[in-house]
Amino acid sequence: PDQENLLEVNNIEVIYNHVILVLKGVSLSVPKGGITALLGGNGAGKTTTLKAISNLLASERGEVTKGSILYHGKPISDANPAALVKTGVIQVMEGRHCFEHLTVEENLLTGAYTRSDGSAAIKRDLEMVYDYFPRLRERRKSQAGYTSGGEQQMVAMGRALMSRPETILLDEPSMGLAPQLVEQIFEIVKAVNEGEGVTFLLAEQNTNVALRYAHYGYILENGRVVMDGPAASLRENPDVKEFYLGMS
Ligand code: ATP
After folding, report:
1. The ABC transporter domain covers which part of the protein (predicted)?
2. Is 242 in the pocket of ligand 1 (CB under 6 A)?
3. Which residue from 34, 96, 161, 216 could staple onto 1, CB 3.0 to 4.6 Å apart?
4. What is the predicted pLDDT for the residue at 182?
């Protein structure tokens, strides 16, 4: 990845319900073309950080009360999620959120709704998604609600790709998946990153797998960044080993 920071989060505070201070000054930089991991335990503030970036806090009575969020150097705090998708940023929410009554393919096509470049390009991208997720090609006519958890995670990611994003915010892709599937999902993240140049910011409790695939990591504890660095050096850090990688 080159040096340009696509996304900059500067010292943000987030408050829920006017009183609960959850992010206490979080700063992070996401370089173009990289995979950046946001790590930390349950309740550390990972999801809140992603939702602050994609402006999804209002529906949860949360707001950014301090700091700034810049994309390509411009503030994005006022962009609604649809406008943000046009800017090139899309969030894949925790828990997948497929349209259960639509087929896999119909779900993927919903991801192209903001595009105006015609059906030929959309068809091409559907093939691109199927090339990254061969399993979805096999299951394309299946009702999404009847597919497995791993397949639904793939649908959610594939649908995001259909918007031709520059940046994907990926929340907890490993959640509830067997280790082998987790590995498969991260292999696809890596392939999409390398093949399409898509930038990733991913929130993940599974530090081990995230630090094997990410280039850079931030560790959040209780609403603050307590450590950050290149993934390779975090993997070797004694504190990270002890507290996050389950070995001392
Ligand atoms: P998880 O992996 O459980 O999602 P996380 O690191 O993503 O953890 P957040 O979901 O961002 O953490 O939550 C951070 C803190 O904010 C937690 O203490 C949580 O209870 C609190 N919180 C989250 N959403 C709300 C809300 N809508 N109202 C009040 N507090 C909230």
Report:
1. 7-247
2. no
3. 34
4. 94
Q: Confirm whether pTM is higher than 0.90.
A: yes
Q: Is 149 helix (H, G, I), strand (E, B) or coil?
A: helix
- Calculate how far, in angstroms, residue 16's C-alpha sits from the geometric centre of ligand 1: 9
Phi and psi at residue 104, in whole multiples of 5°? -55, -45
**Residue with CA closest to ligand 1 atom 29:** 16
Is the CB of 42 inside a 6 Å radius of any atom of ligand 1?
yes
Q: What is the pLDDT of residues 121-165, one digit of tens each?
A: 899 999 999 999 999 999 999 999 999 999 999 999 999 999 999
3-state secondary structure 46-84: HHHHHHHHCCCCHHHCEEEEEEEEEECCEECCCCCHHHH
DSSP H helices in 54-178:
81-87, 104-110, 119-132, 134-138, 149-161
For residue 40, the ligand 1 atom closest to its alpha carbon is: 6
**CA 23 to centroid of ligand 1, rounded, Å:** 10
> pLDDT, tens digit, for every residue of 62-118?
999 999 999 999 999 878 878 888 899 999 988 767 899 999 999 999 998 777 777
Is any ligand 1 atom within 6 A of the Cβ of residue 16?
Answer: yes
Return the closest-CA partner of residue 48 out of 181, 169, 152: 169
Residue nearest (by alpha carbon) to ligand 1 atom 3: 42
- Most ligand 1 atoms within 8 A of CB, residue of 19, 28, 47 to mutate: 47
Cα–Cα distance for residue pair 208/59, rounded to 1 Å: 32
Quick: pLDDT tens for 169-209.
999 999 989 999 999 999 999 999 999 999 999 999 999 99
